[in-house]
Amino acid sequence: MVELLWALIHGHRIVLRREPPLPSALAAARSAAVAKARARHIDFSLLYFGSDCEAGSDDRYRLLLDGARFADRNGFTAVWTPERHFHQFGGLYPNPSVTAAAVAAVTERVQVRAGSVVMPLHDPLRVAEEWSAVDNISAGRVGISLASGWHANDFTLAPDRYDKRKQLMMEGLAEVRRLWRGEKVPRRNGNGAEVEVGVFPRPVQPELPVWLTSARHPETFRMAGEAGTGVLTHLLGHSLEELAEKIALYRRTWREHGHGPGDGHVVVMVHTFVGPDLDEVRELVREPMSRYLETSFDLISSLGVTTRSAEDFKALPPGELRELIDRAFDRFFATASLLGTPQVCADMVDRMKATGVDEVACLIDFGVEEKAALDALTHLNTVREISDERRNAALAEAEEPIAEQLREHAVTHLQCTPSLARALLADQDARARLRGLDRLLVGGEALPADLARELAGTVAGTVHNMYGPTEAAVWATTSRIPPDGGPVTIGRPLANVRAYVVDRDMRPCPTGVPGELLLGGEGVVRGYFHRTQVTAERFQPDPFAGRPGARVYRTGDLARWTPDGTLEFLGRLDDQVKLHGHRIELGEIETTLAEHPGVRSAAAVIRGTGAEQRITGYYVPAPDRPATATGLRAFLATRLPGYMLPSVLHPIDAMPLTPNKKVDRRALPDLSDARPEGTTAYAPPTTPTERLVTEVWREVLGVDRVGLDDSFFELGGNSLLVVVARARLLEHRDSGLSLVDMFSYPSARALAEAIDRKPAEGLDAAVGAGAARAAARRVAGRAAARRAGRTGA
What we know:
Elements: H1 2-9, H2 26-39, E1 43-47, H3 62-73, E2 78-81, H4 96-106, E3 111-118, H5 124-137, E4 142-147, H6 165-180, E5 185-188, E6 194-197, E7 210-213, H7 218-227, E8 230-234, H8 240-256, E9 266-274, H9 278-307, H10 318-335, E10 337-340, H11 342-355, E11 359-363, H12 370-398, H13 402-408, E12 413-416, H14 418-426, H15 428-434, E13 439-442, H16 449-458, E14 462-467, E15 477-480, E16 492-493, E17 497-502, E18 515-521, H17 532-538, E19 539-541, E20 551-561, E21 567-572, E22 576-579, E23 582-585, H18 586-594, E24 599-607, E25 614-621, H19 629-637, E26 648-651, H20 688-701, H21 719-732, H22 739-744, H23 748-757, H24 765-791
């Protein structure tokens, strides 16, 4: 924000993103709508509301607990359990705080939520108290959806509250929120005296995440918007189109009442069972789903008796009831469920995205045999992965190339990371646009000398190397890169910034002597939120300022003063690195790797330079049950953010150690050319285009060989390397290859086929094939030279 403010007050127009062009035809509009829907993020969760079936009574909660463990390991968002009383339908779940506590005890990351708490049946004090306890058990992972209740028999627990249940729900919501924030509420004690009471234990989260449960009535959606809660709903009784209208009402009401940030959160429960064959899934779920629906009809028939507003389904002749159930099953299977193959279910998720749904809560306990339901979770995870892949592809397609943005907006000033700058230089269109810049600011990671020289020789204006951590208002020092490509420094401090280079005893280092870089001045923040110990370590009194209250931030960066009074960045004092603009602790990666039971010890390093930098992991497998790279990747994906995941993982026999028994990262073998463990069996290229693609990938990814069925990303590729690989391919084959193609065809075989389907206009096929063969030879030669240089040949 500081950077934007500076640019604005100096009269610059800032380009943050480009709005998509208006479509000119109905087909284009539909295509844009599909792309927009797919580009939306959607969370996947598990939800339980099954019958209390006598079968499997020895371990009735195995599906709940094992499913929760799976969700926790595989990146699902939440596990929801309901509140249900006095009926076989949902009878396993009379108290969601109890089941939530059980889920919290066997998980580490997944959110633990109630879907729902029937608020009118309880004193808000008791609700806040129970869920505060679970919040502590889970270390701050709870959330609840509140329901008004609808079945009169449930109100056996509070018969005088049935008529005012919606009013009591909203009053209870307000009181639970106050109690959660630490306020007290008045009550009468056993002696009839009025006292003020609050909740113990104090919850971990400062605010309780809350949803309102809505069957299908628009009024509940409106109430949720007014109250600033989320919505938990389902697809029973209304279509996706009708749901979209209610979500629009909810978001409009949310905005009108000034809630934010964001525009609320809508969760939709759907019956879920995913398998590899559509017909097999249909037949497997038909009977359990039909029994489930019959149990539901029994519940609805009871409602009809108590309210005299619906037909008693029990009174129907068996034949008519079965026909009704069969119709309901066919409708559910086709339009209101995640029942089918991963592809079919991913299509359904896309349709839910288009309505504005933020999270799909997958109801998995509707009567399918327990083992089959648990086994199907693997296929459900595939649905989640397909949804993520489609989103990434849609985002890549929607993102306008930077070169086009530079041209269209007549950009004169550009700020980016060195990694992105290197990728822009690799793209001929972007490189041409860089020449017209007045100023280029690069920062966020170390600027290599070769890149600095190339940028200085390309940009017509000036190039500035920017340095500064977020803790010191982003930028703290700056240096202009000389046109002749002289030494690269991080320059001098900006106005109102003080910089010191000190030794371990906080004494200033002489010129030329390395030490830790400290930053002081008005831009230093107060500390880290709720991290008192780390704040005390990193933010300390300024011993050189000469005024009370002044503080410095210990950057952990190694630097030294040069004779001309500028700062030279030398690296990190610890294991923290900057990769593509992200601050990464290699030790955190190593610790997470070592937590796997199949790993004895682990290490992580950065290999490569510029855009081709990537994290490489090494591990010593445990002798009794050794881990595999494939299993480790899945394990890490649930514990680390994407930018911290190693691109490749290599097993080694033993970890090299220094004389004082610390891991010697410099002695780790350079296995950059080795094919990562767990990749597909090698299939050699056969056509000129296949040879071109595999040779370019070999050079960009730095592996010894690439097979036709290898995935660019499983070999260690990332979004920046995609840009580099595309640019290299276009140097040798004018094929109209787009970034979207690179994401859409991740295997070498598929990408080669896509290139062959898009020959350059007017290009003779024989000439094109010859050019491709020559290009492949040139690329192979460069790769061989690079490998020879690495080995000292």
